[in-house]
User: Which sequence fits this backbone?
């Protein structure tokens, strides 16, 4: 055994942070409750559903598994899941919301999304590392669900681009009007 080599940290060899962010949203919204999980954890079941949606959409490939999913791919995967499972949410590009809610800072945009009972998947670094931006039960403001994100508000102020990412909102949200 060559002990001089660095060991891989789980998750660093794949490009699945986007699907994981969607999976975390589904579990957070109790879309995959424990009684639906058929002997597996809700996270495992949600991951299976997200990967099946990616496969149905023709987006599951070796290239995507190691290099990652772009935000348009994540929108397709989420909406494929939502439509097939009668989930009353829809994913839209962050840039469309930002244009509609003109001149908001990143922080104000995240606040508008979570106040509408939604969440966002956004990149916190150039080259894309997707995290879930959501409102934790009982917490004010918003939170980031990602173990590597550090201080959520600091990281989000440095979000790479509002063009990169998606919002997941209830289909009847006022934020979706005229989009």
Assistant:
């Amino acid at each position: 055994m060559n002990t001089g080599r660095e060991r891989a940290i789980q998750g660093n060899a794949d490009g699945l942070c986007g699907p994981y962010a969607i999976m975390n949203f589904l579990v957070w919204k109790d879309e995959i409750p424990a009684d639906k999980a058929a002997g597996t954890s809700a996270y495992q079941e949600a991951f299976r559903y997200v990967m099946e949606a990616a496969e149905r959409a023709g987006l599951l490939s070796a290239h995507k598994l190691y290099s990652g999913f772009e935000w348009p791919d994540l929108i397709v995967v989420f909406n494929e899941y939502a439509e097939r499972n009668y989930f009353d949410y829809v994913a839209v590009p962050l840039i469309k919301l930002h244009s509609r809610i003109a001149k908001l800072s990143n922080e104000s945009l995240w606040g508008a999304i979570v106040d509408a009972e939604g969440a966002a998947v956004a990149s916190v670094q150039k080259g894309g590392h997707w995290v879930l931006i959501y409102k934790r039960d009982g917490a004010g403001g918003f939170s980031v669900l990602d173990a590597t994100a550090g201080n959520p508000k600091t990281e989000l102020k440095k979000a790479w681009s509002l063009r990169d990412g998606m919002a997941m909102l209830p289909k009847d949200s006022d934020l979706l009007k005229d989009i």
